[in-house]
Amino acid sequence: MGGNFNVKELRYISGFQMKPYADGACLFLERLPRRSFLKHIGVGSIAVLAGTQMASGAVEASTTGSFVNINDYNGDIQSAINAVQEAGGGEVYLPAGRYEISNTLTISGHNVTLRGAGKAATVLHASGPDSTKSMILIKHNTDRVYNAKISDLTLSAKSNQAGADGEFVPWFQHGIVLDSSHNFQLNNVRIEYFINDGLRFENKTKNSAGNLHGGPDQVVLLNCQMNRCGNGMNTNDTGHSTHIYGGTFDWNRSHGILTGGRNSVFIKDADVEHNRDVGLKITSGANITIRDCTFEENATTYILTGQTQCVHIWIGSNAVAKSIVIDGCFFYAKSMRALLRLDKGEGVTLTNNYVHKADQFLLGSAGQKVGCFVLTAHSVVNGTPMLKDIYYEDFLTDTITNAASPIDNTRYVVSNLKPTAVSALPEANASIRGFIVRLTVPGKPDELHMCVQVAADLYKWAKINLTIPTN
Question: How many C-beta neighbours within 10 Å does residue 348 have?
Answer without folding.
Answer: 25
